[in-house]
User: What shape does this take?
Amino acid sequence: MSTRTAGPGPRIEEIDVIRGMALYGVLIINLVYAFRVPDFTPAVSEPRRLEHVVASFLAVVVTEKAMTLFSVLFGVGLSIFRERSGMLLLPRRIVVLLAFGVLHTFGLWDGDVLTTYALSGFLALMFLRGRPWMLVAVAVTLLAVHPLISLYCPRWLATPRPEPADYSDQVLATYGRGTYGEIFVFRAHDVLARFKVLLIVAVPRALGNMLVGVAIWKSGILARVPNHRRALRWMAIGGIAVGAGYSLHDEVAAALAGTPSPWNLLRRVVWSFTVVPQALGYGAALLLALQHPRARPWLLRLAPLGRMAFTNYLTQTIVLSTLFYGYGFGLMGRLGVSEGVLLGTVLFVIQGYVSSYWLRHFKYGPFEWIWRCLTYGRWQAIRL
Assistant: This one.
C-alpha cells in the first residue's frame, strides 16, 4: 500500500472546465427546487406560462444530469488522488469531507451532497483497483437499486410526516420566516427522519456514478482526448439524444398521467438509466469543444470555478440560505422559476470572477486548502 505524499501535480484543465459547468447546473437546480421552495414539499403550481416552459427545460436538460456529472467527476478525482498521493491518505481525505458534510447538513442546508459523497467514497475505495468493465457492471447494478425499490418496496422510502398540505405550510413557515434556531431544530429532525432514504437511495446512486468516473479515468480518455474523438463524438450525440429525448417523453407522459400506475413507476425506472448517458454526453461534448482553438479560450473561463468547486459549492449555500431563509432576507416562496434561474446565473458569474482573481494569488480555494491541510496532517503552502 502506497504511503507517498506527492504534490498536487499538474491540473487537467478539461476536468476543471467540465466540473465548472456541472457546478452551474447544480447551482440552478438547488436554487430553483430547494432554496426557492424546499424540494421535499408538494409540487408548487407556477402561475405563468413562462415558468412552466423554464421548469420543463430544466427537467429535460439539467435536473439530475448536472449532479450525475458532478458525481462522475468525483470518481475521477478519487482515481487521480490515489495515483498521485497514494491509497493510505484517501480514507483520511474522505473522513474530512464527511465532517464538512455533517456540519454543512445540520448547520446550513439539508440538501447537502458532501455527506453522501463521503459515505459513497468510502465504499468506492474497494473498487479503485477494479477493471473498467467490472466497474461499469457494478455501477449499472447500483443505479437500479432506487428505481427497483420505488417499484416494488415503496414503503421502505416512506418517512413519518404530517399530511402533505400541512407539512408544506409548516416547511414554508419555518424556513421562510423562522429564526436560525427554529430552522436548525426543524432541519435536524427532518434530516434524521430521512437518513434511511439517504442510505437506500442517494448512496447507491452516487456510488454508481463514481464508479463510472473511475472507469472513465482508467480508460485513458481524459489523458488522451485527441485519440478518442470518434468515441467522444458518438458519446455526445448518442448520450444527449437518448437522455434528453426520454426526459422530454417523461415530461409529457407525467403531464398526461392522471393517477400513479405500474407503468408510471416503470417509466421512472427507464428514465433513471438515461440520466448517466446524457450527463456523459455533456462531458464528451465539452471535451470535443475544448479541442477547437476558438472555443477553448472561452471554455477555459470555467476552469477556475471547477478548481474551486468545493469552495464555490459551500459559498452558494451560505449566500442562498441568507437570501431565502427567515433569518436572512426571507425570499422563500416569493420568486418564480425564471427569476430563480436569473439569480443563480448572476451568482455563478460573480463566483467566476472571484475564483479567477483568487487563483491569481493562491494555489487553492480557501476550503480546498483547509481540506488539503487536514488530509495531509500538516500546513500546506497556499500562496503562489
About this structure: The two ends are 32 Å apart (CA to CA).
